What does this fold into?
Amino acid sequence: MNMPKLIEAMNELDDELILAAAADPQTKAKAPLFRRPLPAACACLLVLVLALAAGLAWQGQRGAAPFVLTAYAAQDAGGPLASQLRPGQAVPVSAFTAENGLKGAVFSHAAQDPKAPASVLILADGADAEGTIRAIAGLELERGTVYLFCVLPEDGKAGHSFPYLLRNEAQNTVTALSISIERDGDGYSAKIENVVTTEQRAAS
It folds into this structure.
């Protein structure tokens, strides 16, 4: 377009359009949120770490039990042999006889109240054993101790698992574990497995 025609075309423009265009400032294009890939990757990684940490807060912690579990094996002299149970490590145990005639392996841990009288919980593989136990031949039941009497079947078959659940009100936790008992020669061996401690959360 030559100059005379350009001038003629500009003269035909409406004055209001020219004034409106002059009053409207130019809008700059917005820069993208992340100009470089490194800050974007760091931000995504931070989000993932925070999400993982939040998820772990709800999951149970696996590993050693937060309390000491003791196993007992009979000896010819000197009283029963007491061994500390650790996850995956087998220790010898014996079949003890309770006052009600039940035969089973015996374990113990400290009660939450050290002044509480001794108590005996009866655990049975796959079924609840009825009755109460106040005395176990060959064992002296001590105050402030919880005893677990795992009933062994009369057929003497190997491979028995006894689940156990302990609530710790002071630490606000629940620990679940399994006591596994196997035949070992003329006697038995025991170990604890699947130890999971979970923090109890107050209902919102």
In short: The CA atoms of residues 66 and 191 lie 16 Å apart. The radius of gyration is 37 Å. Residues 63-199 form one domain.
